[in-house]
Amino acid sequence: MMADWSCIRSTGSALLIVMACWPAAAQEPSSAQVIAQIDSAARNRYEQVLGFTDVEHYAVFRGTDETHPAAQMTVKTTYRKGGGKSYEVLNESGSAFMARIVLHPLLDNEREINLPGNVEQSWFTVANYEMQLKPGGVQQINGRACYMLAVNARRKAPNMIDGTLWVDAKSGLVVRIDGMATKSPAPFAGAARMIRDYMDLNDFSMSTHARAESVSALFGRTVVTIDYGEYHLEVGTTFK
Q1: Angstrom distance (rounded) from CA 139 to CA 147
Q2: What is the pairing mode between strands 204-216 and 192-201?
Q3: 3-class DSSP state for residue 74?
Q4: 26 in helix, strand or coil?
Q5: What is the pTM of this model?
Q6: What residues contact residue 112 under an 8 Å CB cut-off, 6+ apart?
Q7: Measuring CA to CA, how many Å separate 96 from each of 27, 67, 92, 142, 146?
Q8: CB of 59 within 8 A of CB of 228?
């Protein structure tokens, strides 16, 4: 009988140790800790990435048809720190009218956003957004463990959103955004819902896919998608 009771006491002690350690292991970081990590990741990307090139494919869809683009455009993008972005249009197809009123203005907006003095205003940082960690712990997004935050822009702009931000739980890198633009890009355009996915490329957050959907009295439902690829990063003096 003594051997049996010893086994029970030993098992009970082990259970108590596990139960005592469980809250500490399961404890989530605070909003302030996650936000500080996000800010650090954004600053590190700006400081370390001296430039990059990529190839971007734009497509415009009208109404309920998201199979046959009304217009398409493929561009090579070049970013230089301190200089902003430039674009080389590789090819265009479909409606010249839709390309002129939708796609080309997108490139113009990107140039403006990425000019020196402007680029910092679009980062997901506490300077630009109010952020609050949402409950629920770690979630899997695109195969990555993420924290989810509610974000509200501190000013109204076509590239600023109110919605949800997912960040990598280990690095603070942005993984996905989903929200409504705080300002329409043009008087005749409706408010756009924007979704953008990012990958971890050499420890930097880089876009992989974007989708914007808007509805207006003049143009009806319009969806724009962008796919990003063929990245070449310049970090320091070495291309990766």
Answers
A1: 6
A2: antiparallel
A3: strand
A4: helix
A5: 0.84
A6: 118
A7: 55, 19, 8, 35, 41
A8: no
At residue 232, what is the residue type?
A: H
Determine the Cα angle at 160 with ends 64 and 32, to 5°: 125
The tens digit of pLDDT for each residue in 12-35 reads 554 444 444 444 445 778 999 999
In 177-233, which residue ranges form alpha helices assigned H by DSSP? none
CB 125 within 8 A of CB 38: yes
Tokens of 30: 């605070």
pLDDT digits (tens, 9 = 90+) for 57-91: 999 999 999 999 999 999 999 999 999 999 999 99
Say which CATH topology domain 29-239 has: outer membrane lipoprotein receptor (LolB), chain A (2.50.20)
Evaluate whether 114 touches 85 at the Cβ level (below 8 Å).
yes
The single-letter DSSP state of residue 126 is: T
Partners of residue 172 on adjacent β-strands: none
Q: Which alpha helices (H) appear in 27-82, and where do they start and end?
A: 31-48
Q: Is 223 exposed, middle or buried (0-12, 13-18, 19+ CB in 10 A)?
A: buried
Give which of 187, 193, 174, 166 is closest to 122, Cα–Cα: 174
Q: Are strands 204-216 and 220-235 parallel, antiparallel or unpaired?
A: antiparallel
- Give 54's strand partners: 77
Q: Per-domain residue ranges for the chain?
A: 29-239
From residue 208, give the alpha-carbon distance in Å to each of 120, 151, 211, 217, 237. Answer: 20, 21, 11, 31, 24
